[in-house]
Amino acid sequence: MEWRQQTSVSCADAFSEAQRWIEEVTGKSFGSENFRAALENGVLLCDLINQLKPGIIKRVNRLSTPIAGLDNVSLFLKACGKLGLNDSQLFHPGDLQDLSTRVTLRRDEGTRRLKNVLITIYWLGRKAHLDAFYSGPQLNFKAFEGLLGLALSKVRCSSRLLTAVVLLFSSPH
Q: Does the pTM of the predicted model rise above 0.85?
């Protein structure tokens, strides 16, 4: 299978799993909206993180304006930071913007941006999994292996290398 095909298949698994997890945790459905459209206004994301850590976002803006949506997404990302996610694990607020009306758009730009959102969902799911006080639905991390495979294999490789170096220098000569 060609690399692009593998990537799109693995992303499909991650999209499906992220949607399932968000819907189960929040008790709210994406409805007929696609992944980006369902999360664009930030309400579901705020509801998600408030279920994981009640009260972390005090007030969700439920107006249906682009500014309200951007505000909610920013609140979600700040809350992720409070839970310990690093900036490198967070998507950019613009990653959820509708790009369909743009005249000049690189072919894979929309997919790249949504992958960033998936990566944040993955790391948030890991935080929830490690939280002793959270007993709700869990994210299936295996669904993200195709999306994160290369990054995770690099982490494992560097981890093994670090272990080997530590063992080498800590062993008596």
A: no
